[in-house]
Design a protein that fits this description.
The protein is mainly beta and about 550 residues long. Helices cover about 10% and strands about 35% of the residues. The strands form 7 sheets. It has a 5-stranded antiparallel β-sheet. A 5-stranded antiparallel β-sheet has the order 11-10-4-7-26, with no helix packed on it.
Length: about 550
């Protein structure tokens, strides 16, 4: 049951409120006191190439809606790309030095603090900081672009069209004929939040299959109500399951996520590479695991006491951007990308803080590393020496909502193996973070007090190296056999879905794929470039409530 809650929440979800009469060609809710309130829901299975699916749409009007004349059900697929790139000829200045004064909170009870972001206990050169801030915020030194491609948009009148007065509550069955065309997998736009500011380049994409209801009023205007998002399950041809062996170079990450501060340079640090092999091949099904074998190779000075402790491996999204502007541009952190799949448990009426219901997550355990001892005659001399660990066997887990490989208009979706090496560094190595050094030294000094405090000291210093290899191929768990291979949605021969009457579904399913494809028209995609100043990094899921847009596959599972 959906609850009637505050108007602020209602307008942010799948509800639209209209003034009387509605604004001309308006597709947005009005901020004026409403007289006609509309809500819409769809429940339907995911689309599959060459299938005919059945679904239901429910529309509910309340208030004074006498001017509403007809309904139409719509379905579209949109995808977009956004980037904010620093001009290569205008590098960002080095971050000014900040000094944290831990006593200033008490020493100056009358200090006037800056209203944004200054905790009051930071000392810095205001002139240097202002120059740095001005450089980062100078929009002329950044390239900002947002572009959206609509692959298809279809509409169909509902049975209530033309009825006077229009029913205030109606439920209608509908059908969708899906052509034998492979569209991209449906992604969950409710996840994937990423930091939108700062000094780093930002590249993001979104896509959504969305149902909507269009209401036409007596004065000729229309308004649109979101009715939920759906998904597409593309067909995958069998792929050769290669079993390659790759060498992965490791390097330290940035000192702080989202910053341009690089780790300190120590010429005496050892170099590490990891030899990774895939005895079972690189094809891995969603919600399963694949075994890998790893050997850690170290080259460094023999009189250094750094020790590799453990190796962790996990799968990670991999994106290859197609736009020329994005070539050789990288982001230190990619936002998570998840497939839209029906919830394991029925969705309850979750609150804002609870988000989505929990789903099972598989874990890839780490493994301890064992190296042979350095030859005794070399331990006290500065010789360069290479050594290798014993082979490690790790289980690489892929979640049930991992996105299968697919090439879209803006990007190529894939997966990579991410490797993290944990090292106990040599005591002489420089620290990358001054405050971590202070805290660590204090814990070492206070280690004899561990029995008298409620926390456990962590006197063991660690640093991390990471690397990756784009070799994984994630494929669906089950696929029904197809008599004909689908065409790719970017092909000139691609066709778009079409609404059909629910009473015709049984007969359509008896037709051949070729006959059904003749009913679906050729796709006619369109592209929109947003004007300067109107660009948004996120556009499809912005409400902050993880329940919306509703995934209609979840409500379909509840029905069946």
């Amino acid at each position: 049951m959906l609850y009637w809650i505050s108007l602020a929440l209602i307008l942010a979800t799948n509800v639209v409120a209209f003034t009387d009469p509605p604004p001309s060609e308006s597709k947005e809710s009005s901020n004026l006191p409403f007289q006609c309130q509309a809500r819409a829901w769809v429940r339907a299975p995911d689309m599959v190439p060459g299938e005919v699916i059945a679904g239901d749409v429910k529309i509910k009007l309340s208030g004074s809606c006498m001017d509403a004349e007809s309904y139409a059900l719509g379905l579209r697929y949109k995808e977009k790309v956004f980037w904010k790139l620093r001009r290569e000829d205008a590098p960002i200045p080095k971050t000014p030095k900040l000094t944290y004064n831990r006593t200033s909170m008490n020493s100056d009870l009358f200090k006037v603090r800056r209203p944004f972001g200054d905790p009051g206990n930071v000392d810095y050169n205001e002139t240097e900081w202002k120059a740095y801030e001005d450089s980062v915020q100078n929009k002329d030194l950044w390239s900002i672009h947002e572009e959206e491609r609509t692959a298809f948009e279809i509409k169909s009148p509902l049975t209530d069209a033309g009825r006077d007065p229009l029913s205030s509550s109606s439920t209608t069955q509908f059908g969708v004929l899906v052509p034998n065309t492979n569209y991209p997998p449906g992604l969950d736009c409710r996840v994937g939040f990423m930091f939108t500011g700062g000094t780093t380049d930002m590249i993001s994409s979104e896509s959504i299959y969305e149902y909507f209801v269009e209401i036409r009023f007596s004065n000729g205007t229309t308004s649109e109500i979101p009715a939920g998002m759906t998904a597409f399950a593309p067909f995958y041809l069998p792929k050769e399951n290669n079993a390659p062996s790759v060498n992965v170079s490791l390097s330290p990450g940035p000192v702080h996520p989202g910053s341009n501060v690089k780790p300190s340079i120590d010429e005496l640090r050892s170099n590490y590479t990891i030899e990774v092999s895939f005895p079972e091949g690189t094809n891995v099904y969603r919600n399963s695991s694949v075994n890998i074998t790893a050997i850690v190779h170290r080259t460094g000075y023999t009189n250094r006491t750094e020790t590799p402790v453990q190796l962790c491996a996990f799968s990670e999204n991999d994106i290859e951007w197609h736009s020329q502007e994005l070539q050789n541009r990288s982001q230190p952190f990619l936002p998570p990308t998840k497939l839209l799949v029906p919830s394991v448990d029925p969705v309850q009426h979750w609150g804002f803080s609870q988000g989505m219901p929990p789903r099972p997550v598989c874990h890839s355990p780490c493994r301890e590393i064992k190296f042979a001892a350095t030859p005794a005659p070399l331990t006290h001399e500065g010789h360069v020496f290479s050594s290798s660990s014993e082979p490690l066997s790790l289980s690489l887990c892929v979640n049930h909502d991992a996105v299968p490989d697919f090439s879209t208009y803006y990007q190529k979706l894939g997966h990579r193996v991410k490797l993290n090496l944990h090292i106990a560094p040599d005591p002489s190595e420089p620290w990358d973070n001054k405050f971590e050094k202070i805290n660590w030294e204090k814990q070492i000094a206070d280690v004899d007090e561990s029995d008298w405090v409620p926390w456990t000291p962590t006197p063991t210093r660690r640093r991390f190296l990471s690397g990756d290899a784009s070799v994984l191929s994630v494929i669906p768990t089950q696929q029904a056999p197809l008599l004909s291979t689908p065409v790719h949605y970017l092909s000139d021969k691609a066709r778009q879905p079409v609404f059909v009457d629910s009473s015709d579904i049984a007969d359509l399913r008896l037709m051949s794929l070729e006959e059904r494809d003749l009913i679906a028209p050729l796709a006619q995609p369109s592209i929109k470039v947003f004007a300067k100043g109107e660009e948004l990094s996120r556009r499809y899921c912005t409400g902050g409530d993880m329940r919306y847009p509703i995934y209609v596959g979840d409500t379909w599972v509840k029905k069946v």
